[in-house]
C-alpha cells in the first residue's frame, strides 16, 4: 500500500508541475527537481531507496525508445559524423580530461574511480535541453546533433562506466579487452534491438490474423517493445540502452505499424505521449527526492573549512570543467570539418563561437547519470568499502543540478538571435508535402470519376468527386496560393470548421440527453462520444492560421 501511495503522489506532482511550469516560467526539469527536494527535505517527508537496475529497466528503455522514434532520421543520417564524434569521441575525451582534473582537484578520489565518475557524467540529456529552451531559438542543425548525441552517448558512457568500475574492483585494466568488450556491447545491442523489432512485427501479424482481436492488445505489443529489446541485450551482457534506441530508430522504417489497426495506431500515439511525459516528470522528481539525503551526507573530504561553500565550489568547478572540455572538443571537430571541406573543395559551414558555446552549455546531465552512479557497488572484491563511493555520488548529483541550473540561466541568452528570422525550413517542407499530397489526391479522384459509365450513378459520382476534390484544392490554396487566394481559402475553411464544430456540439448535447433519458446505454454513448471526439480533434487541427 505504501508503494502504491508513493507512486500516486509522484504522479500527482508530475501533473501539478506541468501546470506550474507555465505559470512560474521555470524550466520543467528544474521545477520537478525542486518539488522532489521539497517533498523529501523534512525528516518525515517522502523517502525512497532506488534500485539502480530496476530504475534503468523501468524508465530508460521507454524514454530512449520514444526519443529515437520521434527523432528526425534524415537529419541524423546527414549529421552522422558530428553526432558520432560527440557520442563516442567526446565520451573518451571527457573520461580522460575530467578524470585527471577530478583526481587533481580531490586527491582522495582514486584515479580509476575518477574515470568511473567521468564516464557516468558523459551521457547528456537532450530532453532536458528541449524543455529549457525553445526549439525555434536553437539552430535546427545544432538541436539535431544534440538529440542524436544523447541517443548514442548513453550507451557508450555506461559501457565505459562498467569497464572503469570493473577496473576499480579488480585493480587491473586491459585496453584491448575493454575495446573488444565495447565493440561486443555495441554490436549485440544493435542486433538485440533488431531482434525485438522482428518479434514485435511477428506478434502484430499473428494478432492481426485473429478475428476480433482488441486494439489494446496491439498497443501492448508496442509498449513492451523497448523493454524486450533492453532485456535481450542485457541478457547477453550487451548494451540494453543501445538496443532500445535501435528499436526506436528502426520502428518507422520497418513498416511495423502497417500490421496495426487504425484505432490501435491512434491509441499508441496518445499512450506514448502520456508515458513520455509521465516518465520524464517522475525521473526528475525522483532525482529531487534523493537530494536532501545526499546533501545531509556531505563527504568530510569536501568540508575541511566550510560546510557548504567548499562542496558547492567543487561542484561548480567540475561542471565548468565539463563545459570547457565539451567546448574544446566541439571546436576541434568544427575545425576538422572545415579543413576536410576545404581539402575536398566543398563549402565549409563552421558553427561559430556562439553556436559552439550553446552546444557546450546544452550538454546537461540527467537520469542516466543518476542511475549509473547509484549502481556503484558497496564493497570491493576483498570486502573493503568501495573507495570514495559517497563522495562521487554527491559530486554526480551536484553536477546534474548545476548543469541544469547553468543551462536554464545561460542557454536562452546565448542562443537568442542564433536563428535568422524568416520561414522555418521545416514549415516550408511541410507546405510542399501538403501541396504534393493534395495534387496526387485530386488526380486520383478525377481519374476514378472519369472511369464511370453514363447514367445517374455516373453523374452522382462526378458531383461527389468534385465536392471531395474541392477540399484538396482549398488545402492547396492555403499552402501554396497567392496571398488573396490564401485569405479566401482561410475564410472559407474557417466558416466550414465553425459550422461543423457547432454541429458536433449539438450532436454531443443530444447524446447526453438521450443517455439521461435512457434511450441509449453507456456502451453506445461511449462509442459515439469517441467518434465525435476524434472528428473534433481533426477539425480543430484544420483550423486555418495566419
TrEMBL record:
Localization in the cell: Cell inner membrane; Cell membrane
Keyword Iron applies: no
Listed InterPro entries: Cation/H_exchanger_CPA1, Cation/H_exchanger_CPA1_bac, Cation/H_exchanger_TM
TM regions (residue ranges): 83-106, 112-134, 182-201, 238-257, 269-291, 311-332, 353-379, 391-411
A Gene Ontology term for the protein's cellular component: plasma membrane
Keywords: Antiport, Cell inner membrane, Cell membrane, Ion transport, Membrane, Sodium, Sodium transport, Transmembrane, Transmembrane helix, Transport
GO molecular function: potassium:proton antiporter activity; sodium:proton antiporter activity
Membrane topology: Multi-pass membrane protein
First-listed, main subcellular location of the protein, grouped into a coarse class: membrane
A biological process term (GO) from this entry: regulation of intracellular pH
Pfam families for this protein: Na_H_Exchanger
Start and end residues of each Cation/H+ exchanger transmembrane domain: 13-415
Transmembrane found in the keyword field: yes
Family: Belongs to the monovalent cation:proton antiporter 1 (CPA1) transporter (TC 2.A.36) family.
Biological role: Na(+)/H(+) antiporter that extrudes sodium in exchange for external protons.
Name of the protein in its database record: Na+/H+ antiporter
Source organism phylogeny: Bacteria, Pseudomonadati, Pseudomonadota, Alphaproteobacteria, Hyphomicrobiales
